[in-house]
Specification:
The complex is a heterodimer of chains A (394) and B (212). In chain A, α3 runs parallel beside α8 and α10 crosses α13. Chain A contains 13 helices and 13 strands. With 394 residues, chain A is α/β, with parallel strands linked by helices. In chain A, α7 links the parallel β5 and β6. In chain A, the strands form three sheets. Chain A has a seven-stranded mixed β-sheet, sandwiched between helices. In chain A, strands 9-10-13-12 form a four-stranded antiparallel β-sheet. Chain A has two domains: 243 residues, Type I PLP-dependent aspartate aminotransferase-like (Major domain) (Aspartate Aminotransferase, domain 2), CATH 3.40.640.10; 121 residues, Aspartate Aminotransferase, domain 1 (Alpha-Beta Complex). With 212 residues, chain B is of the alpha+beta class. Chain B has a three-stranded antiparallel β-sheet with strand order 1-2-3, with helices on one face. Chain B has a three-stranded mixed β-sheet with strand order 6-7-8, with helices on one face. In chain B, α1 crosses α2, α2 packs across α4 and α4 packs across α5. Chain B is globular and about 50 Å long. The two termini of chain B are 26 Å apart. The chains are: A alpha/beta (394), B alpha+beta (212).
């Protein structure tokens, strides 16, 4: 069986989630925007999922919307806030230098078009945001601070409550958007409604369906656009809601919460074992990102010095093991991972980065399988690497 | 974008030919850069202008290793002149094709071979003095591949101007300003052109391409 370590990209959908979704395609395939039996039945199904998310975040059910993907949700969050900004101004947006493409590529594009001014906050060697720089960067034109609570690449957990406090003390008008996509199912407490104005969180990384991402917008927060038309059901996310996926998201969230603390503990043990034993087996292995409690329980990110990441990824693939890499060779745009570059300024470290992410369903057997083959793979690649010292050439 | 490798590429990746180091080589070269991600070292043993032995080392992806394997196969036993005429397209063909986004790997392998041969010609005093000129720069730009199309930027008519003055090179290119490969292309141009003799400064300007 394949050992799969790419759960922070996608997970399998839990069978119980699919069972819950099925009738909403085949029998109760209705749209929610009418007062009829069919319309109200579909609307109630959506409300159940809204309630599940509201409970988790600590907000109200009607503040929860559902976007058709993680990228769309972050676009609505960020562009929607800008759509409501005063006309004729160039709003200031603050984000970090280590964001996922769904935020990073968007703000870069808006910046290029001259629509916004952006501050990319620096991070330290643990990937933690520079709070002093944050405090200093907030000015009278700042409209939004947007960042992920847990970094997708190296698993750094940002001190979001402290961050919110700093922002609100400096300028209470600034809106705060947290992307909880990599925090869901990894952190025990996500009741952040009183610390944020907008929250996004995809469900596909915790055994939910792909086509749905929750978008929580606090009542009274102005979000306008960028998608218009067919706003009968939701002004913020226009179009017919994907009822089956929304139902599935609610179910996946409920299943996630069952025994969450044990699940987190299990992942922590796998994480620490994977890091400890790989480092013991393979000399000159670097851990990217923080150790211990600053790190997501489901993230391991390593660089084997002198070895390029896509080769490692391909060799592991041939052994039926899936990982991800920060190498430019594996990136469709041939760019080395910007998170590792921002943290260490080291191209070799970024090209060599191997990211392994899991959920509570990941097993010790999968870790065994990786540990069994990784020393041989790295040794083989070091032997042919022009960067490796002689000691690896014997 | 699918980046599936064919079985021949995988075979050369798993069991590369001519991999290793030649002690006391007659010529050697290391090409590539940390920023672009892949690097290849080539070592040559030359007798009577014939490549008697060739070895390579690679820091790079599967296609980097596979193309180095096939290019060294193609060069072994050839005269220097024959080896210099090996084109990166032949290496791709010999491998049964590569995803276009990976063509630049085969260019790097061929460049490594050429750099090593030039090293030999230089050592033996046979390298004709090359003077920095727009033509010489253009020659280098034939080795810069635009990944989505898998073709070089000269053939794609994306190079609009090349100017050379007192070691200062100015290159104007034409890509949309939000082309996701733009930075990669600029880095690669600088990397290739900086190896030419007499280059003191390189300026790459994107003219844009019918966009904002």
């Amino acid at each position: 069986m394949r050992a799969y370590f790419d759960h922070c990209r996608s997970t399998y959908v839990d069978k119980r989630v699919i069972d819950e979704m099925m009738p909403w395609w085949t029998e109760k395939y209705w749209a929610p925007s009418s007062f009829t039996y069919t319309g109200t039945t579909a609307a109630e199904a959506i409300e159940n999922s809204q309630m599940a998310y509201a409970k988790l975040f600590g907000g109200k059910p009607d503040e929860v919307h559902f976007a058709p993907s993680h990228a769309v949700a972050n676009n609505i969050a960020i562009q929607g806030v800008l759509g409501n900004a005063q006309e004729g101004t160039v709003p200031h947006v603050i984000t970090t230098s280590i964001e996922h493409g769904t935020t990073m590529d968007l703000v870069k594009q808006l910046e290029k078009l001259g629509k916004i001014r952006v501050t990319y906050l620096p991070v330290d060697k643990n990937g933690l945001v520079d709070l002093d720089a944050l405090q200093k960067s907030i000015d009278k034109d700042t409209v939004l601070v947007s960042m992920a609570a847990v970094n997708y690449m190296v698993g750094t957990i940002q001190p979001v409550k402290e961050i919110s406090k700093i922002i609100r003390e400096k300028n209470p008008e600034v809106l705060i958007h947290y992307d909880l996509t990599w925090a869901l199912g990894r952190l025990p407490d996500l009741a952040l409604a009183s610390y944020a104005d907008i929250i996004t969180a995809s469900i596909e990384r915790i055994h939910g369906p792909k086509g749905v991402t929750a978008l929580w917008v606090k009542k009274g927060v102005g979000v306008k656009g960028p998608i218009y038309g067919s706003q009968a059901y939701s002004r913020i996310v226009p179009g017919t809601p994907d009822v089956p996926s929304i139902v599935g998201a609610g179910k996946a969230l409920q299943l996630m919460q069952e025994g969450l603390e044990e699940k987190i503990e299990h992942m922590k043990q796998l994480r620490d074992r994977l890091i400890r034993e790989t480092m013991a087996l393979v000399p000159e292995t670097l851990l990217n990102g923080p150790e211990g409690d600053l790190r997501s329980p489901s993230n391991v990110c390593l660089t084997f010095r002198y070895v390029e990441g896509e080769s490692v990824e391909m060799y592991l693939d041939m052994e039926d093991i899936t990982v991800d890499t920060g190498s430019a060779c594996a990136n469709p745009f041939l760019e080395a991972n910007h998170v590792i570059l921002a943290m260490y300024g080291d191209y070799e470290r970024a090209h060599g980065a191997i990211r392994m992410t899991f959920t509570w369903t990941t097993t010790d057997e999968e870790v065994d399988k990786f540990l069994e083959v990784i020393p041989g793979i790295v040794a083989k690649l070091r032997k042919i690497s022009p960067l490796a010292p002689k000691v690896y050439k014997e | 974008m699918s980046i599936k490798y064919n079985p021949k590429v995988i075979e050369h990746f798993k069991n590369p030919h001519n991999q290793g180091v030649i002690e006391n080589p007659d010529a050697e070269a290391l090409v590539g850069s940390p920023a672009c991600g892949d690097q290849i070292a080539i070592y040559l043993k030359i007798n009577n202008d014939v490549i008697e032995d060739i070895k390579f080392e690679s820091y790079g992806c599967a296609s980097n290793i596979a193309t180095a394997s096939i290019v060294t196969d193609l060069a072994k036993g050839k005269t220097l002149e024959e080896a210099l005429s090996i084109k990166w397209t032949e290496a791709v063909q010999e491998l049964g094709g590569l995803p276009p986004v990976k063509y630049h790997c085969s260019v790097l392998a061929v460049d490594g071979l050429r750099a090593a041969i030039k090293d030999y010609l230089r050592k033996t005093g046979r390298l004709p003095e090359e003077e920095l000129s727009p033509d010489l720069v253009r020659e280098e730009l034939y080795h810069v591949i635009y990944p989505p199309q898998g073709l070089d930027i000269v053939s794609l008519k994306r190079v609009k101007y090349i100017g050379v003055e007192d070691g200062k090179v100015r290159i104007e290119i034409s890509f949309t300003h939000d082309d996701p490969y733009l930075q990669e292309i600029i880095d690669e141009i600088k990397e290739k052109v900086s190896d030419l003799p007499g280059v003191k400064d390189i300026e790459v300007v994107n003219q844009g391409r019918g966009d904002y």
